[in-house]
Every structure is written in structure tokens, then in C-alpha cells.
Write a structure and sequence with these properties.
Elements lengths: L12 E4 L2 E5 L5 H10 L11 H7 L5 E8 L2 E8 L4 E3 L9 H18 L8 E6 H7 L5 H4 E14 H6 L6 H13 L4 E4 L5 H13 L14 H6 L7 E7 L2 E10 L5 E8 L6 H16 L5 E6 L5 H7 L5 E10 L3
Parallel strand pairs: 11-12
Antiparallel strand pairs: 1-2, 2-3, 3-4, 4-5, 6-13, 7-12, 7-13, 8-9, 9-10, 10-11
Helix pairs in contact: 7-10
Amino acid sequence: QEMRSLSGSLLNTVRIGQWEFHRIGLMDLPLYTDYIKATAYPANLWSASFAYLWAASRSRLRQILWRIVDGLLVTFGYSYKKTLYLFCLPFGAAGPRELAEVVLKCLHYCYEQNDWDYRRTLVRMINGSQLEFLQRYSGFDQAFRLATLQGIERHLAVAKVAALAGKEFATVRNKANKFRRENPGVVVRRAQQDDYDALVELGRDWDSTAGRKYRRIFDRTYYREMISHSEELDQIILVVEKSGQIIGMVSGGILPTGQAWGGLLKYAGGMPGLSETLAVAFARELNRINPGVALLNIGSDLGPGGLREYKLKFRPVLNLKRYQMYLKKR
């Protein structure tokens, strides 16, 4: 096997074996937007939003790379252990067969670069709606094997969460109303550039208080990156302010698919109803900006526990299993 080589760092490119890849950068947002808009399958996986892909590239554990393969935009992960894999499904105009063929081509290339190790050669994540699309390819079962991941991806009805009407939202409505009564004068507003230091401090406070309940939320590596580059990433950040102090924040954005993505949620500990207030305020802001946005993807609940219970309070209307997809052994 030809020795792997990395080159072209000055040009923001990487060569792994025979293929050249581009490191993902903020300037790639328009490219991803165009390809995602053209995608035929439901491009609604939480961890395949551009904001997440870019933020994930800031980790020292991996590089996030892209390459155009047979007309599709393919996103790769390249770990510090020199494992090459697909980070998500390719984007672009393709039916099930064409999509599967590009995935196979790329996985076979990864397999070669990974020293012919099937265990390291995979599509890192797909969700149930994407799997349904791919399974329309008649050769799917012969080409791929699946491993089910823990946790269900939750998608909320934006208009319903914004309205909080009816018995199904009584718990959230009561908590948010109680928070407002107990904290008169709180302000919900868009974040400003000079809020950065206060948001960093809020992140530290979250880690040591409320966030201790949710140790499996993996956002420490990209929290600062996303708040400092929110404008370039087309992200909305709302903050809750009390007596001049920021006590909570929520972020996300409207995707090229026309649906919405919930990115970050941080809040000070010991203030019941604050997290519900943030989530509802974000849904209302989305509804104000574009009433046509129907769904908000708030990510996986990571399995049984407090995070699942919290997300279920908002009555998700689309609940998708998540999978890793491997080459099937020959």
C-alpha cells in the first residue's frame, strides 16, 4: 500500500493516498447550502448541519474534509489515529442507487486507507428517514450492514412549541410561566458581539452546575467556536438577561432544507423553568422569522435518562433512530 501522505496545508487541502481532500472552512457554507438544497433524501441528520460539521473540525481529535465524488459532496472524518470514514451521507442530487454507489466507492477507498479494516470503515451516522431512502436501492442488504446507536433524534413542531396550547404542553407552559412570575423584569433578546465574555462565563457555570446532569452532551469543544462565529455560520443566539447578567442562552438556525436546527442550550443552575423559557423563546423566534419552518431538530436524547425526559416534554412529532453503516464483509 502506498504510504499515506498529508500535504497542501497552505492551500487548505490534504492528500490521503491518491485522493486530495479539502479541509472544511467557513467559506464552504455556500457550497454546502447548494448541495444540501439539491439533496433528494431527508437531509435532516442533526450532526450533518454545516454549523456542526465546521465546529467538529475544531477538535484536535479529527479533521473534517470534503471532496466531490461523481457529482456529490462527500464529507469525511480523518481521525488522529489516521482512520478515514464518512462523517455523514453525501449531499447532492441523486436517487437511492446513485447515492449508494457513491457511498460504496468512498467506503472502499476508506477501507484501503484503513489497512483493510472493516471495523474502522463506516458512515459515522445516518438516521431512520435516510435509511428508508437508501433501502430503496435493491443491493442495499448485500452492500451494507447496520449498527443501531443509542438514543433517538427528536424533531419538534415549531408552531406547537411556540403556541404552548393544550394539555400536552401544560408542564412546559406552567414551568415557563412560573419562571416569569418569580423573575420579573427578565429580558429575552438576540445576543450581541459584546456578550461573548458573558457567554463564555455562562458555559463555565453550566459545566459546574446544571450541565453536570448531562455529562454526555459533547459540546465543550465547539461551544466557544460557535458563539464566536455565529454570524458566519448563520446561527441565531438568544440570551435571557436578568439584572444585566446573562443567565441563559440558546442557539440554532434555519437549514437549507427549510427546517430548523437546535444547536446549544446553556443556563444557570438553580432557576427552575429557565431552560423551558429558552426553548420556547427560540421556537417563537423561528416562527417569527419564518412561519413556514415546521420542524426543529433538537438532536438525540442519548438514551434513557434526564435528557430524554426533558426533550419528551416538548412533544416531538418526528422521532428517528440513528445508525452507523458499515461495508459488509465479502
